[in-house]
Amino acid sequence: MHASKSEAVDGQTRTHVPLLVIGAGPYGLATAACAKHAGIEQVVVGKPMAFWRENMPAGMFLRSGSDWHLDAAEVNTFEAYLGERGIDPSEFDPIPVGLFLDYVDWFEEREDLRVVPDLVRNLSRPNGHFEATLDSGERVTADAVVAAPGISHFTVIPEWVERDLPPERWAHTCNLVDFEELRGKRVMIVGGRQSAFEWAALLADGDAGEIHVVYRHDTPRFTTSDWHFTDELIALTATVPGWFRHLPPKSAKPSPGGSGQRAG
């Protein structure tokens, strides 16, 4: 791969890197650090942990434990961060989102990652190289691209919600992070998975008047998270590039993510 370089073209800066990482959330930052360890020059384009900072309520906790972290080299781990700060992992179970954000800031500084706080407006592939145009007008060309844009762009809003409800009467969990306006109100949550019950608990903490969770499936079992189901998927990703592109249509269809709330 070619080394990174910058040049001015038509009054705009154009940078070339071997690897462009789109997205500065946990996956994007972890990918950039892993590439750096492998000697691959890279740049991350995105606002660091923006979704976590702007779209997650302050009182939220993580399902993952302290053994989950961003460093494939097993050096700058979450537990290493806690140890440096003199924090016993058992004191934080579950883990507050704010504490994990502090870890990510520490990790980004330790890894000395190059992050451009911008957004990619367009991605094309002329002349065999990828070319990304940023909101700022700058352009980045790359030999390879890893896209880790996060989940906020893939919210699923039922058709009847937008058709039958005025905009001020509903919200998606990706956007509802301040519960003050719902204090004393009746709230219906449509959906019965993780986000639905998390937001129900947070609304209860925020003194909502009534909270009704409506869903058509069996009630989830509230047990300690077990992530072993990802082992096979990770192994496939490491050994069979693009395996997910060959899934049957039913399996490849995205699941409806998040929940909608209606306040009354």
Plain-language structure description:
By secondary structure, this protein is an alpha/beta fold. The protein folds into two domains: 147 residues, FAD/NAD(P)-binding domain; 110 residues, FAD/NAD(P)-binding domain, CATH 3.50.50. The protein contains eight helices and 13 strands. The strands form three sheets. Strands 1, 2, 3, 6, 7, 8 and 9 form a seven-stranded mixed β-sheet that branches. It has a four-stranded mixed β-sheet with strand order 10-13-11-12, with helices on one face. Strands 4-5 form a two-stranded antiparallel ribbon. Strand 1 and strand 2 form a beta hairpin. The longest helix has 15 residues. The chain is globular, with a radius of gyration of 21 Å. The N and C termini lie far apart (57 Å). The model has no long low-confidence stretch (mean pLDDT 89).
Briefly say what this structure is.
The chain is α/β, with parallel strands linked by helices and 264 residues long.
Task: Name the overall outline.
Answer: globular
Portion of residues in beta strands equals: 15-25%
- Domains, number: 2
**Termini separation:** 57 Å
CATH superfamily of the largest domain: FAD/NAD(P)-binding domain
The CATH class label of the largest domain is: Alpha Beta
Instruction: Please tell me the CATH architecture of the largest domain by its name.
Output: 3-Layer(bba) Sandwich
> What is the count of DSSP helices, taking H or I runs of 4+ residues?
8
- Which structural class fits the helix and strand makeup? alpha/beta
CATH topology of the largest domain: FAD/NAD(P)-binding domain
Poorly predicted sequence stretches spanning 5 or more consecutive residues: none
Query: What can be said about the biggest beta sheet?
Result: 7 strands, mixed
Number of beta strands? 13
Radius of gyration: 21 Å
Q: Look at the structure and give the mean pLDDT.
A: 89
Element pattern in H and E? EEHEHEHEHEEEEHEEHEHHE
Helix content: 25-40%
